[in-house]
Amino acid sequence: MNLFRLVGDMTHLLSIVVLLLKIRTTKSCAGISLKTQELYVLVFLSRYLFFFTRYISLYNSIMKLVFIGTSIAIVWYMRYHKVVKQTYNKDEDTFKHYFLILPSFVLALLIPHAFNSVEILWTFSIYLEAVAILPQLVLLQRSRNIDNLTGNYVFLLGAYRALYILNWAYRFYVEDHKVRWIPWLSGLAQTALYADFFYYYIKSWKNRELLKLPA
Questions:
Q1: Spatial distance between the Cα atoms of 112 and 179, rounded to a whole number of angstroms
Q2: Cα torsion through 101, 186, 130, 196, rounded to 10
């Protein structure tokens, strides 16, 4: 465990806290993509499917349970909560997210970390996580104004991935000098998807304006 990974994990956790805070306090999921949240459920389930057979540490186990539990809870709120589900922007959340699943799985079969079921599912989760934010970004582009909690959630989610790239670089130079091509390239691709959002987020924060993304 190094500082970059710890801060990255806490940033990821904070992004989820911000999203749950938005849903719980405002009873609204406006501006949040259910498609992206469903993809994250699949990401965490496939990555941590063998949670009970591969113990690493208490910290690692707790974080796995938190990410699985919170991702399922968010989807439940958006689909089934009698008040929250009425605020879901279904007409604007139209990205065909299922088109991202099959290519990610095929890529995991063709370029896995190792040729066994655990590693193929892990690799699949890495590839899928890299593109899972796409429905959310498309939804934000279609929204005229983005509320602060939604903007902060997406910003923290992107910052977490950027911090993880620093974590991998640190591990390469300081710990084992191993090149982890799959998470590195997937992480860079994922961070690149946030570049446009980061620009407008920082610009709106600097100018104290409502966040808006160009169509």
A1: 15
A2: -140
pLDDT tens-digit map of 130-144: 999 999 999 998 887
Is the sign of the CA dihedral 159, 160, 164, 170 positive or negative?
A: positive
What's the chain's Rg over C-alpha atoms?
17
**pLDDT, tens only, 47-90:** 987 766 777 888 888 999 999 999 999 999 999 999 999 999 99
With tokens 């924060």, the residue in question is 205
CB 108 within 8 A of CB 120: yes
Q: How many residues does the chain have?
A: 215
- Whether 212 is in a domain gets the answer no
The predicted structure's pLDDT at residue 13:
96
Count structural domains, the chain. Answer: 1
pTM of the model: 0.92
Decide: 128 and 39 in contact? Cβ < 8 Å: yes
Residue 63 domain boundaries: 3-88+118-204
Query: What is the average pLDDT score of the chain?
Result: 90
User: Would 129 be classed as within a structural domain?
Assistant: yes
In a domain, 215, yes or no: no
Residue 64 located in a structural domain:
yes
